[in-house]
C-alpha cells in the first residue's frame, strides 16, 4: 500500500508542533476567549437530540453488512446527507454475508451449555475431550497432545480467527473460547475460511472447565453446529463532501464512523452513535464558512474486518490522498456505561488528529484537561494510518459490558457523552477548516503547548 508523501503533512506538523512531545494547536496566551468564540460557531449549533434521534432510527434493527438491515441504514444515511444539501456517493464493494447457525448444541457431562456462534463460523459435529490452550498462542500448544481434541481458549491478545487457526494447526478438531470479562461474546472471524467448528461461552463457564482440567480431570464434550452459511453480498460506504466556501486551501479533512453492526445486536452504541454524530456534524458544517473541504464517510463491513475503510483508502485518488490533513474516526461514543474518552492511534504515537483533539478538549473542558491518547486498532482509523494518513479513533474505554450483544440498545445511550464527543471533534475539525486559517501549515493562530498523556487503557 502506498505511503503518503511528506509535503503537506510535514509542513503542517512542523507548524503546529505535532512532532514535539506535547505541542498542540490552540490559541496563543491571552487569546483563549477568541478561540472559544470560534468553537462556539460549531458547538452552539450542535443539537444532541438530533444525534439521539438518528441513533433511535438506525438501531431499530441490526445492520449486518450485506443484509437488508444495512441497506436500510445506508438509504437513511444517504437521505440525511442529501437533506443537508450534500451530493452523496454510494461506494459499493463485495463481501461475504453470513447466516448464523440454526442449531448450536454444546453438551458436557450430559448437560447443555448456552453458547454463541462466531460470524463466519462453520458447521460440524465433534465429540472429544478438552485441552486447556491458554490464550491460543502458538506457544500454548507446544508439548501438548491436541490432535482431534477440543481446545479451550480464553479471550484476549489474539483475534478469534487467530486463536482458531492456531488450534487447528496444532491438530484440534474444535475450539471453545470463553470470555475474559462479564457478559457473552458476540464476535466475528473476519472472513470465511476453512475453520474447525468453534463457539463462545461465558467467563464463568470457561473458568469452571479450566479448573476441572487443572485438577487433572478428563472432560469430554459434544459440539454440534448446523445451518451456518457464508455467501457473496454487497456492502456500501456512504460519502458526502462539503466543498470549501471561501478561497480554498485545497486541503481535506475526513470524518468517519461505521454504520454496520454485528448479528443480533441493534448496535445503538456500536456504532449508530458514531454514525449519528457524523450526520449531525455534517448538518452543522453544511452552512458553515470553511476554506477546507470536509468529507463525511460512514463505512460498511467494519465488523467483517474493516472492509469498508480498506475499500475507501484503496479507491482514494492521488490528489485526495496527498491533500488529506487527517481522519477523525468515531466508534462507540455514546454508552452511559463505558469508560472515559480516549484517542487511539494504531501505532500509539501522537499525530495531527490527536493534537487537534487534545487541544479542542482542553479548550472546552471546565478543568482545562486534555484527552489522553493510547495505542489501539480494531476500527476504521487503521487503514488510513497504514497508508500514512494521520488518523485517530475517538472512543470511550473500557467499553460497556453489553458490547456486541442484543442489549446494545437505545436505553444505554448517554446524551452527555454524545455531546462531549460531537463538541470536541466538531471544534477540532473547525480549527483546521475555518476561514481565518488560510492553510494549516500557515495558520495565523499560533500554537500553544497542551500536555496530553499516553494512557495504557484496554478497550475491553
Key descriptive features of the protein:
alpha/beta, eight-stranded mixed β-sheet, 31% helix
Q: Can you describe what's shown?
A:
This protein is of the alpha/beta class. The protein contains 12 helices and 18 strands. An 8-stranded mixed beta sheet has the order 2-11-13-12-14-17-15-16, with helices on both faces. Strands 4-3-10-6-7-8-9-5 form an 8-stranded mixed beta sheet, with helices on both faces. It has a two-stranded antiparallel ribbon with strand order 1-18. The longest helix is centred in the middle third of the chain and has 19 residues, at 268-286. The chain starts with 6 loop residues before the first helix and ends in an 11-residue tail after the last strand. The relative contact order is 0.19.
Strand content: 15-25%
Give the low-pLDDT segments: 4-30, 443-447
Multimerization state: single chain
What is the radius of gyration computed over CA atoms, rounded to a whole number of angstroms? 23 Å
How many β strands by DSSP? 18
Helix/strand class: alpha/beta
* Major beta-sheet overview: 8 strands, mixed
Helix content: 25-40%
Distance between the termini: 30 Å
Helix/strand order:
HEHHHEEEEEEHEEHEEEHEHHEEHEHEHE
Helix segment count?
Answer: 12
Shape: elongated
Strand order of the largest sheet: 2-11-13-12-14-17-15-16
Q: Mean of the pLDDT scores? A: 89
Amino acid at each position: 500500500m502506498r505511503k503518503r508523501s511528506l509535503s503537506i503533512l510535514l509542513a503542517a506538523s512542523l507548524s503546529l508542533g505535532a512532532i514535539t512531545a506535547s505541542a498542540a494547536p490552540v490559541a496563543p496566551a491571552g487569546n483563549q476567549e477568541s478561540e472559544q468564540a470560534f468553537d462556539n460557531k460549531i458547538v452552539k449549533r450542535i443539537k444532541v437530540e438530533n444525534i439521539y434521534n438518528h441513533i433511535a432510527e438506525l438501531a431499530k434493527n441490526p445492520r449486518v453488512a450485506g443484509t437488508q438491515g444495512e441497506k436500510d441504514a445506508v438509504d437513511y444515511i444517504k437521505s440525511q446527507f442529501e437533506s443537508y444539501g450534500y451530493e452523496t456517493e454510494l461506494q459499493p464493494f463485495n463481501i461475504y454475508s453470513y447466516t448464523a447457525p440454526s442449531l448450536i448444541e454444546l453438551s458436557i457431562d450430559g448437560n447443555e451449555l448456552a453458547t454463541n456462534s462466531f460470524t463466519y463460523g462453520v458447521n460440524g459435529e465433534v465429540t472429544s475431550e478438552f485441552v486447556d490452550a491458554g490464550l491460543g498462542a502458538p506457544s500454548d500448544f507446544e508439548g501438548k497432545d491436541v490432535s482431534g481434541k477440543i481446545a479451550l481458549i480464553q479471550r484476549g491478545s489474539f483475534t478469534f480467527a487467530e486463536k482458531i487457526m492456531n488450534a487447528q494447526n496444532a491438530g484440534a478438531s474444535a475450539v471453545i473460547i470463553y470470555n475474559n470479562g462479564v457478559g457473552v461474546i458476540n464476535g466475528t472471524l473476519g472472513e470465511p475460511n476453512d475453520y474447525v467448528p468453534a463457539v463462545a461461552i461465558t467467563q464463568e463457564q470457561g473458568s469452571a472447565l479450566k479448573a476441572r482440567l487443572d485438577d487433572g480431570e478428563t472432560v469430554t464434550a459434544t459440539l454440534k453446529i448446523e445451518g451456518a452459511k457464508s455467501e457473496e453480498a454487497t456492502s456500501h460506504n456512504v460519502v458526502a463532501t462539503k466543498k470549501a466556501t471561501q478561497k480554498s486551501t485545497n486541503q481535506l479533512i475526513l470524518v468517519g464512523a461505521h454504520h454496520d453492526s454485528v448479528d443480533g445486536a441493534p448496535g445503538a452504541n456500536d456504532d449508530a452513535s458514531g454514525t449519528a454524530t457524523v450526520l449531525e456534524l455534517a448538518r452543522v458544517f453544511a452552512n458553515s464558512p470553511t476554506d477546507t473541504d470536509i468529507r463525511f464517510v460512514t463505512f460498511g463491513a467494519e465488523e467483517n474486518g474493516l472492509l469498508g475503510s480498506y475499500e475507501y483508502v484503496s479507491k482514494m485518488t492521488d490528489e485526495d490522498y496527498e491533500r488529506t490533513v487527517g481522519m477523525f474516526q468515531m466508534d462507540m461514543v455514546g454508552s452511559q456505561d463505558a469508560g472515559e474518552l480516549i484517542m487511539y492511534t494504531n501505532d500509539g504515537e501522537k499525530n495531527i488528529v490527536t493534537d487537534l483533539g487534545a487541544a479542542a478538549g482542553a479548550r472546552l473542558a471546565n478543568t482545562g484537561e486534555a484527552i489522553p491518547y493510547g495505542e489501539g486498532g480494531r476500527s476504521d482509523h487503521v487503514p488510513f494510518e497504514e497508508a500514512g494518513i494521520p488518523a485517530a479513533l475517538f472512543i470511550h474505554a473500557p467499553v460497556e459490558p453489553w458490547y456486541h450483544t442484543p442489549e446494545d440498545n437505545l436505553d444505554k445511550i448517554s446524551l452527555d457523552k454524545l455531546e462531549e464527543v460531537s463538541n470536541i471533534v466538531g471544534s477540532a475539525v473547525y480549527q483546521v477548516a475555518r476561514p481565518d486559517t488560510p492553510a494549516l501549515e500557515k495558520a495565523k493562530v499560533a500554537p500553544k503547548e497542551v500536555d496530553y498523556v499516553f494512557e495504557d487503557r484496554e478497550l475491553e
